[in-house]
## 1
Amino acid sequence: MPNDADSSSLPDPQDNVEPLDYKQQFQGRHPSQFVDPCEAASKASLKCMEQNDFDRNACMDYFHAYRECKAAWIERRKDDRRNGRTSD
């Protein structure tokens, strides 16, 4: 059963639709380290699952926000590569 008091600590799913600037995320990291500009969306979806007893249907908005974020990030990376911009 979801806990209403805990759900207030979850961000709005739409707050995590846009990925963070991946170039800033890569700064200070070794090239082989995994960087996820959609980490906030990922964590929010996992937290939602924990708070809703792993009821996937209760967290669909968070899953969609994560997918949108990832798609935007991948598209941005493709665009940068096509235009000769790198993550350096």
## 2
Amino acid sequence: MGKDKTSNKVKINSSETKLNDVIELRDEKEVTNKESKIHVLGEGIICDTEARGHATPQGRSPIKIVLEASEGFIPLWAKDTIIRWRFRERSLSSIKNPEEAKEEFRDLFGEALLAWGDAAPVKFTEDNDVWDFEVVMRSADECTPLGCALASAFFPDSGRHEFVLYPKLFTQSRKEQIETIIHEVGHVFGLRHFFANVSETRWKSEIFGTHNKFSIMNYGKLSELTEDDKKDLKQLYQLAWSGALTEINGTPIRFMKPFHIFAFSSKEVVAIV
């Protein structure tokens, strides 16, 4: 595939020149304007978990922990939840040393969970049989003119998901790699970006807790895991599980169970029948 030096049109080959009028790339300025609502976490780094745009572009005034509520409720994990995961083996086919790559992720993931400590509301276990999410290692980066994603994850629900790692992640410092995984695990726990309530008002979120602008769910130099992050998260789940907290600002809390719970239930029904 080549690119015409005099335009932004992509040439498939010489016999398919008719496509030139159809497949035309926007220039960098147009792309930058269109993607200006992507969350820039740092210089050349964006978050791919929350591709939702800002209702007020570049709006910022983070004050408190922000929870996912875009479906009209706040999804939190049920008590005693264990989330099962595995590697997507075919995603490792382009990696020279796949077993070493697996160990690298296990180390990063383990360090991220240790950082959250007893504030982590769920436990994780590697299971190749019945799984809730797959760790996917992409062979190419996901980039826009604003930067490249390092990883992406998901929010609490009962479906199957991907925890995606991009090559760019492994070009960062060890500290940046761990903080990225800590950030993505925060999404898995149900946390949105620190500024979601202000700058993502098209997708509802709710505020809980009180802490300063330094948070692992913030971005750039403000992105660091704090004791307040952990304290607020732990208190949130403790109050919700005890029944003392059933809604936040009128938005109800709903508990999620992972996919494998329902998979086992289906097997039991089939066995009984």
